[in-house]
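Troubleshooting entry. Yesterday's outputs looked truncated, so today I'm pasting the complete records for two proteins to confirm everything comes through intact. If either block looks cut off, that's the bug. Protein one:
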Amino acid sequence: MFAVIRIGPTQYHVKVGDVVEAAHMPGTVGTTIKLSEVLLIDGQGRTTVGTPVVQGASVEAVIEAQHRGEKIHVRRFKSKVRERRHIGFRAELTRLRISAIHA
């Protein structure tokens, strides 16, 4: 059984036991959260597609970590003026472990 869920602007294809790195979500490590934006569920020989979400469906996930991602370096250079600029960015991420899919 698998599901397609939406967390923020991103869609994830998940099944029970998967680990997902998503955009930062409020909560502490070890708490269980309920994700209700389920776009598709497939299991037991049938597929349910939502319009846009499947009514009554949800996915439970446990927050494993709240951390920051890899650093992204943004460099800008303007020729003739010899202007250089460097910016670093690290996204706040949440690691989720999918514990249950409810249809």
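Protein two, checking that the full record survives here as well:
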Amino acid sequence: MRARGYEVDDWHIDVEDLKDLRGFGPIEHDFSRARTVVGTHRPANNAGKSLILQGHCDVVPAGPLDMWETPPFSPAVKDGKMYGRGACDMKSGTIGALYALDAIEAAGLRPTGRIHFQSVIEEESTGVGALSTLQRGYRADACFIPEPTGGKMVRSQVGVIWFRLKVRGIPVHVAHAGSGANAIMAAYHLIHSLQKLEAAWNERAKADRHFKTLTHPINFNPGIIKGGDWASSVPAWCDVDCRIAVLPGWSIADCQKEILACIAAASRDHRFSPIIRPMWNGLASCRKAMN
């Protein structure tokens, strides 16, 4: 960006500066090297409207390596397409936006409005990279994010709530399984109930002006499950990390209450009497302890 004549702002993100801002989500991994980079085109006479172009450079885990035809972090080009983790989502969009600015200049044109070209991280989880640009003071009349979502303009987007189910069971030897409480099976019971909540929210979405034409805009996903210590012991614990979408305008606090109410109702249906303790704390989390 310096080679293109942009003003460059390159800084390390301090989570302490962000933790009290609206929309902050806690970071659960090493964030000491986290950076945000912004390049700014600032015209001599600021006559036009300002624009933010933002792309993210973080990626989701690669998954099982034996399912990849080529190594995920060694880019490969086949039939005119690049394959590799993050090539599409969304380094392609980020580079596309940069080349669009190059094309404008190559055509002999100079934008009369301020343009901020932003490279952020953590889009896949908390969004604190984008939040850091706001904390830094960056604003514009419009923001365009060239995310490769079907190659179409998206004018409204879902938000998400992440939460963790922490289920506690009663451990016994499998020979006496009937006298214990299987935390993994109890977790599945809760998951099935949350799928019913997902269906109810999709019915509610039919009244939304932006999402009513979509068949299934609300998706619930139990994405990580861990539990148990020994195959011959009835598992005493099970943790399930979940994600569910929410529509613009929906109250996060109200949706969290609905999730807790769904879990509480499902727990009453279970033959073991659980104790529910909410632990939202940004990344929404629910605790279900089996007594």
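Both blocks look complete. Sanity check on protein two: Residues 170 and 180 are 5 Å apart (CA to CA).
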